[in-house]
Amino acid sequence: MFTTVLANRLAQTIPEKVPPAVIAAGLPESSVAAFIAAFQAGSQSAFDAVAGITPQIQAIGTRAYQEANSQAFSTVFLTTIAFSGIGIILTVFTPNIDHLLTREVNITLNSKETKSVIGTPGGGAKEVDVEQASG
Q1: Cα–Cα distance between 85 and 79 in angstroms, integer?
Q2: Per the domain annotation, does 96 fall within a domain?
Q3: What does pLDDT average to over the chain?
Q4: Does residue 134 have a pLDDT over 50?
Q5: Short-list 72, 70, 60, 76, CA closest to 23
């Protein structure tokens, strides 16, 4: 759920923040899509392939990209708070089940005394020959 919120929010914040910042810094409008794709590629060679980019434009675009990510993660944080609050409120309506939490076991599967024990429905244990049981 949180990844969906993040992806949807990034789809809004990146186009809102990055293109105006890099265009104002001097990047040609035709290179904006390549600039954003360079962030997704994550390599310096991808940035070098963008037409009209300078180190200053890259720095300004990087800062705008960071701000867009920050806003998107802020929305994820607020979503977390909302669902956590709902969860805390719902715990008030959860019944107390302490009386059901006992140390009673219906069927014993293994015992410390012997290595080859299978539980019986009465709560006891019967020893079984391991080679016969597996064959």
Answers
A1: 10
A2: no
A3: 82
A4: no
A5: 60
Average pLDDT over residues 84-90: 94
Summarize the confidence of residues 85-91 as an average pLDDT.
94
Structural domain including 63 reads 2-91
| 122 backbone φψ class: left, alpha, beta (φ>0; ψ -120 to 50) | alpha
Statement to judge: residues 45 and 106 lie in one domain: no
Whether 63 and 85 share a structural domain: yes
Q: DSSP for 23-55, please give it.
A: HHHT--GGGHHHHHHHHHHTSHHHHHTSTT--H
Specify the pLDDT at position 133. Answer: 47
Residues 42 and 65 in one domain: yes
DSSP H/E element including 118: strand 117-119
The answer on 80 and 14 residing in a single domain is: yes
**Whether the Cβ atoms of residue 57 and residue 27 lie closer than 8 Å to each other:** yes
Residues 87 and 107 in one domain: no
Backbone angles phi, psi at 65, to 5 degrees: -65, -40
Which helix (H) or strand (E) covers residue 126, if one does? strand 125-127
